[in-house]
Amino acid sequence: MNRQRQLNHNSDPESYRSLLPEIANLLNTSVSYIEKYPTDIQKTLCEVYIAHFDSNEIIIKQALGQVIQLNTETEKQIEQAKQQALHQEQENKRFSAQAVLSRELIMESAKIIAEKNQQRNNRQLQNVEYGQFERKNSESE
Predict the structure, then answer these.
(1) What is the DSSP string of 50-104?
(2) Alpha carbon distance 42, 50 (integer Å)
(3) Res 1: pLDDT
(4) Is residue 29 left, alpha or beta, with left meaning phi > 0 and alpha meaning psi from -120 to 50?
(5) Burial of 45 (0-12, 13-18, 19+ CB in 10 A)
(6) Per-residue DSSP letter, 37
(7) Contact at 8 Å (CB) between 30 and 24?
């Protein structure tokens, strides 16, 4: 590894990709596995690799491992957030369905109550009319 070549990569962001084989070798993985990471993570790996160029191999591996670990933890947090959002959406749909059902029940109950009130009012009206009829009949006798 030529120090000058490594430092030149710092000035050309696109040339970072040429460092991926060396990074993959240090991490005991394949280049294609590292290429699965988002571009910003790949660039960060290369920057960490260049920043720790003068260090020994163990320190470089630890530094690179921390970048990957942070990415993995972030991915887990994103997945958890997605799961929570999905669960919340399902709860909202369930609550919404219950609210619609409740509204339908309330409307049906209100209709039944209105009909019963109308029947009661009609009976009272009939009783009043019948009472007036009875009074008229008793007065006319």
Answers:
(1) HHTTTS-HHHHHHHHHHHHHHHHHHHHHHHHHHHHHHHHHHHHHHHHHHHHHHHH
(2) 12
(3) 45
(4) beta
(5) buried
(6) S
(7) yes
Q: Give the residue carrying structure tokens 């957030």.
A: 81
In Å, how far from its chain's centre is CA 111? Answer: 40
The token duo for 15 is 């040339």
Question: Structure pTM?
Answer: 0.50
| Residue position matching structure tokens 């290369």 | 46
Q: Residue 72, Cα to own-chain centre: how many angstroms?
A: 19
For residue 41 the two structure tokens come to 């993570």
The residue count for the chain: 141
Extract the tokens encoding 128.
Answer: 């009043």
For residues 60 and 46, is the Cβ–Cβ distance under 8 A? no
pLDDT in tens, the chain (141 residues): 444 444 454 556 567 888 999 999 999 999 999 999 888 889 999 999 999 988 899 999 898 988 888 777 778 888 888 899 888 888 888 877 777 667 777 888 889 999 988 888 888 877 776 666 565 556 655
The single-letter code of the amino acid at 2 is N
